[in-house]
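Dear support,

Our group has been running a series of protein-ligand predictions, and this particular one with zinc ion is the one our PI (initials K.S.) wants archived with full inputs and outputs. We had some confusion internally about which version of the output was final, so please treat the block below as the authoritative record. The input we submitted was:
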Amino acid sequence: MVLGFALLVALLATGWTATLRDAAYIGSRQHYTIAVFFYVGLLTVVAKLLGLGFDYYGFRLEHRFQLSNQKFGSWAKDELKGWAVGLVIATILVELLYLTIRFSPQYWWLIAWGAFMVLFVFFAQIAPVVLFPLFYKFKPLENEPLKERLIRLSERAKTRVRGVYEWKLSEKSRKANAALTGLGATRRIILADTLLHNYSDDEIEAILAHELGHHVHRHIPKGILVQGAITFIGFWLGNAVLHYAIDRRHMFETLSDFANLPLLMLVSTVLSLLLMPALNAYSRYNERQADRYSLLSIPAVQPFITSMNKLADQNLAERAPSEWVEWLFHSHPAISKRIAMAEAWGKKG
Ligand SMILES: [Zn+2]
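Confirmed final output from the archive:
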């Protein structure tokens, strides 16, 4: 986070962003749209090179604690793929951004916000069928007793989840995970094979019920609404800051000068940093809701508690982080608190 922030500030303070823009113009023979693409490409290369040391450190760290079994070659391939996917998405977003700026200098931020939200929904929808399979294999769950349990859970909830998929996580990781992903026709629960192979059916049912809780409480659509509101503020603020930089500080000549991109990114970075505690609190609230749903749906609390303990051990989770670490960074409540809630629930009968 600090490095990304420092890069943006350095680009703006030193004028390197203008140097990059000029290089992009020369490379594209003064063609605006191609120059934007080159500029984004150069920026993602610089950012990737700067972050490479930390990425490799993360890879080594997971191996040191036996959390990962991924080979270096496979990791390097994933890093490259991740960078390429990031470049494609960033190019689409930035081209669209400067197209709207040129099309409507007055209302660009409003139009771009609308277009970004459409794309956001689109990406949420295609992620489980297009993006995730670039990195992991998935196949429909074959465990019949588990499928029957899920159908029973869904019927009680008067809802339907389109599918449950086995996520081949074991090829790369020793950790376990489960999630609800997608939108509409791609909405699905994914369960890591590392979970399916080491947990009892009762424990998996408790985890399935938690994911179903996210579905029943409509956490994905609600999350998109929250993102929409924040992005709206971000675009409005971005427009105000750009005008200040151009009209008052004369940092750039025009709105459409894409050398101002780091300034827009800085606005979005600062906004997300400021909102991080609030968004994490919102996420923890949703997780507690999904936990309660799980406890309500399963016949006994014990499998919920043992699955939490297993997950904590397997993923080397910090069971009881300090309050302020949890408050700032954690999207899920501390495992100790989740277990305490289940125990209290059990006592209540
Ligand atoms: Zn959850």
